[in-house]
Input
Amino acid sequence: MYKEKIAEIKNELKDLFNNVSDMQALENIKTEYMGKNGKITLLNGKIKEVPNEEKKEFGMAVNEIRNEFNEKYEKIKKNLEDAEINQKLASEAIDITLPGTTIKNGAPNILEKIVEEIESVFMSMGYDVVDGPEIEEDHYNFELLNIPKGHPARDAQDTFYVKDEDYLLRSQTSPVQARVMLASGGDKPIRMICPGKTYRRDADDATHSHQFMQIEGLLVDKNVSLSDLKGTFDVVVKKLFGESTKTRFRPSYYQFTEPSVETDISCFVCKGKGCSLCKNTGWITVSGAGIVHPNVLKNCGYDPKVWTGFAFGFGAERLAMLKYGINDIRTFYQTDLREIENFDRRED
Amino acid sequence: MISLNWVKDYIDLEGEDLRELAVKITKAGVNVEAVKDNHINNLVIGEIVSCEDHPNSDHLKICKVNVGDETLQIVCGAPNARKGIKVIVALPGAVLPGNFEIKKGKIRDVESNGMLCALFELGVEEKTEETYAKGIHEVEEDVKVGSDANEYLGTSDVLYELDVHKHRNNDCYYHIGFAYEIGCILNKKVTLPDISHKEIKEDVNDYLTLKVETEDCPYYLAKMVKDVVIKESPEFIKKRLINAGMRPINNVVDISNYVMLEFGQPLHFFDKDYLGDKIVVRKAKENETIKTLDGLDRNLKTSDIVITDGSKPVCIAGVMGGENTEVLPTTKNILIESAIFDAVSIRNTASHLNLKSEASIRYGKGLNYEYTKMAIERACHLLEKYADAKVLSGIVCHDKVDKTDKTVTFKTEGINKILGIEITDDDVKVELDRLDFPYVYKNQEFIVTIPKRRLDIDPNINDIAEEIGRLYGYHNLVSTLPKGVTKQGEYIGDVKIRKEASKRLRTLGLNECKTYTLISPDMAKLFNYENKENAILPNPMSIDKSIVRTSILPSLLNVYDYNTARSVKDICIYEISKTYDKDFNEDLKVAILMKGEYLTNDWLKVNVKVDFYLIKGVIENLLNYLGYKNRYSFVKEQMSDLHPGISAKILIDKDEVGIIGKVHPSLKKDDIFVSEISLTKLYEKSVKPIKFKEVSKYPEISKDMAFIVANEVESDAIKSVIKKEGGRILGDVKVFDLYPNISEGKKSIAYRLTFRDETRTLTEEEVMSVFNKIIREIETKFNVILRDK
Output
């Protein structure tokens, strides 16, 4: 008797499941058969009517149909859900070739980019980055640096005086070095660079600027030699202009160093073969440097019998013009946003 | 310009390749910028043996010219071409200046095999009306036909154009000094020129008394010559002067210049008959004037040194002579002055008179006193030889020169330490000999005497190391790294906050500018929100750059203009720079200017325009990053050049640190927003280290409230009441809705309050009690209507 009933339900379900097309219909079936008064649920109550010896078999049959139902239900449910998701996804597809929302560039000033590169090389070698006043006292800008009043080197620097002959717009960043030496008290080694703005009375044109940036540096210690300066330069220019870059010193003259040298690097465009950038010499001048003049050490509180040092200076504009092929120095001070856009990125 | 033919008078350069020598000299520190070789091939001396009129021309002539081994037919247009004169002939193949090659050819159907030359065509003279009118150059009769005309012209000479570092320009710009430089490079000795001459019995001291009344003339020598015959200089003197860029005048004047180019010592020749019997060297008097050789009246300052005849000036010392004692073709008797004047004084005089002369340039660099005497003797030698002068005996002399030798005592070890090389005592001896520096060597110690001609060398070991180093060759240095303890370098002082602010602003999409510190008075008037007075340059180069800025904003407006003119629409820029007031107080500022769109996607209609709240967000982001979260506030304030309703001061801990606002529409039509903050002030405010704070594990309760309130009531005023009344359990307070002008002069503003407790779950009742308390308090404090809660 119950066997027929179970078979009947099975048949009904087979049809129903085959024809179910949406979630609602499926849920209706579930209620109809597995709900509180569902046809399968009600089978449980029938056990009383089953003879004892058949009770076990009956129980198994009900369980089986219940399991079959659940299995089938889950399977169909999953299919319906998948279909629904797929349909949703299909409707949401977009044209991924349309332009993205523009997030604005934040480009550095080209000079600052060069300065930051140099800072990072020197900081890794233990140099602090220091700055000092741009309106400077004559005493720091000239006197302490072995450029007394009346010295021809003062004419050459053609200084902007701000008040009498006592205050000026610094014509070099070297006064920062003097300040650091004085503050160090003459008994500690020093490693520092001082990138910063400097000013000289030059009329502005493609190659001259009344305002420009120097990156000067100073190392004071015991037993510092010109060869140490050369080794230091090697490290820096390789970092800036590539591993194959070579360094060359030529004799030169600066008031606060003795001996003084000019530093050339092998041309990074032609690799020393000769091209228009290096005027066919294979070399490009990038820096002035030398051993700190004993008078400067003395003026700044260091005993030249015990301490020696080297100092060097780069022109940020020159380095940037060389590195990026810029022909007009005014580029750095105009900030054409279309030009600096490209500088908002890393470089290898 | 250095003539190598001339240098050969003092040093043996036989067999030297002069181009290679130039490279060696440059490597050792004196830059030979260019090697000029004016030699022209196929240039010979010829003689016109016949000269006939050209049949097809009214001015051309057909010349037969003997050039030694043959006679050539050459057509020539010069009016002075005639039979019997010797001329310079450019043969076919010669290339004249201007890359003009001489070829065989026909001129109006007549064969012509070369060219008869004028001096300007050979680059020996400038082309002027005067030189053009001279026609072809007529060569002196004693010059041999067929000989190389380069020898005759001096174009066989090689010239070095020097770019000498300042410190060497007193010894390398004259020929003897340069010969010494070559001498140390080639390890050869220098021979000084002949200064011998006869002297007559008469003594200059009987004709002249000298008085020097200024310390700026430590050395004054004068000699006298009589009965000079003024004529043209000999060819070699003329050629050498021309090569040095000087114009030959007559033998006497040329000799004074010639000696100056030899020894670097300027000489001055006075016509003794006009000078009188007295020389007084003194400072010029107030309002004193002199007419100089160039015919101009010069007003003198009391700082100028003048040579006077006892009453009036006859020469501006070291700069230019006076017309009243000028050497003229009629001059017979000459007083020769050779002196040293203070370099700075001469530079100042030349500069205020705007008068750069050969003499003032040389005096300005400083002079070697040893050559002062030698030069005057040399001039006597040449005047006797080439101007038939009779040299008087004796010398008028004022001598207060400190002649103490400059010496340096050092050991080789010291040199090695400076250069980082290893050379021996013997190596040092070799280098000192090459330099021609006298020295004593004992007990492994050198005592070097610095030669007088090397004014640039100070008596210390570094200077000697430099001399040895440049000869040793810096290319021989090895690369080593400094020893000593290494640590990571740091940004010192406010450099760090500057770098951090800069990086954050770039991350936020602002571009970094660099503009000029010096600005115009018009710019300086803008954005003076601090009422600072400017530092003004007493002697600016131009009015455009005459004022040290107190604010960067006017400069950023220029960058805005520059880019706007180039059709850049979205401009988000910043600059960090030091500013100064009139007392030179420094203020490191960051300035920001934003205009246009901040985020853009046109097809998506995403167009986030820059407005006050956007730039405020940028500033808040920056200040949060720099560590000032919850410490800053914005207080409305009117400031010049900013929109009166859209401008504020920025405070940190109640102290003003900057400003923010919209640029006043009368200044710029566009909607431009700016802010400027003092990093100097920020740097003074220390920032606490970061601490981890755990988020409360207990649920939050959010409650909203909305009010209708007068438009003028500021959100921050309501917010501060909310915060105060909310107490400990109130977390965030956010404005989430705003309807301006919801009714006449009123707005609706809505806040979302979040309550939480770190230690327990809050009950609805306690939150509501606080919430209602807040509403009551707002209702009492402000004239508001609660719209919703």
Summary: The mean pLDDT of chain A is 90. The radius of gyration of chain A is 42 Å. Chain A has two domains: 2-92, 110-343. DSSP finds 13 helices and eleven strands in chain A.
